[in-house]
Amino acid sequence: MSALFEPWSPTFVANPYPAYAQLRATGRVHWFEPTQQWLVPHHSDVSALLRDRRLGRTYLHRFTHEEFGRTPPPAGHEPFHTLNDHGMLDLEAPDHTRIRRLVTKAFTPRTVAALEPTVRRLADDLVATLKRNGGGDLLAEVAEPLPVAVIAEMLGIPAADRHLLRPWSAAICGMYELNPSEDTAKKAVTASREFSAYLRELIAERRANPGDDLVSALIAAHDEGDRLSEQEMISTCVLLLNAGHEATVNTTANGWWTLLRQPDQLARLRADHSLLPTAIEELMRYDTSLQMFERWVLDDIEIGGTTIPRGSELALLFGSANRDPARFADPDTLDLAREDNPHISFGAGIHYCLGAPLARIELTASFTALLREAPALRLAAEPEWQPGYVIRGVRSLPVEL
Length: 401
What we know:
Blueprint: H1 10-14, H2 17-25, E1 30-32, E2 37-40, H3 43-50, E3 55-56, H4 78-85, H5 95-106, H6 109-114, H7 116-132, E4 135-137, H8 138-143, H9 145-155, H10 165-173, H11 182-208, H12 214-220, E5 222-223, E6 226-227, H13 230-261, H14 263-271, H15 276-286, E7 292-297, E8 301-303, E9 306-308, E10 313-317, H16 318-321, H17 356-373, E11 378-379, E12 398-400
Parallel strand pairs: 2-10
Antiparallel strand pairs: 1-2, 3-7, 4-12, 5-6, 7-10, 8-9, 11-12
């Protein structure tokens, strides 16, 4: 049945949901030979496994590569792994606990709330430009620049340097796809080196001249004498950019593509902007931008009568879990007023997305501006999907006003 799962097929990437329905109907776990992973399609299992301490984003806090039955990454990939392996997303306790605690001291709810006027201003400016032009590529002209500008503003990255961020992020995120090629790895390594060098200089400058920005706050964050190392700060900044904007970009574009194909729901939202909070959650559930989240099995587990041995890798299918009829009424129906909506697009457990409140502010700002300023927004051409499956989104979204 895992033959239905074709993550390198453009047809599957464009609409994986029928295959997910068949995976859910035929079992709780499926072996997928091409990636040597166990696919987990049900909401209850995915939700529970995200919180299960017998699993980990890494295994290196307990085992060597050899002890775990895995081959170490090539030495030439080291700059990427140094950057990636010091970020919260790929760490487990006690390192994850310590770093998240310190980052949370800098990335506070007050910090995020204080950004709201800036986010609204940036979104309004981007939409105003789109309006003046009579339309354009909603992804390139609104969805992408907004979260990049916000995270750059937070980190205190000068406007003249901000054009560097998105290409670096895209190159690094290529490594999160299934079975990345050596060419993808080379691009990620180059981006990791360049981005790390840039941030190292920025951190040195902020140490000498602290400002009112997140880098300065990360330098200052301490707890009982404990501080973030320079590498941990660099990895945290990169993670905030990558995780903090990839999902927002794709949720914005995928969300509008969904609405433009469902004119009754779009008309409902245009008539009642107060639906926006539930609408954003529903769009995240209905067409999830992060389709898969991987976990290593640190101790043998059992799923639906199948023993999954230590050393295995699970592929938790977020897109499938968010369409599971065992948890969501009429899951294939878009309901912008859906109240009971425990989607897992932001994850769960200790790796629950730290930037979720900021993502919601950004999504609210851009959707509000587009609904207000572009009430006749319509599709100008059918979009194509990016080849990536794990981080899933369209290449562009051409619109007319």
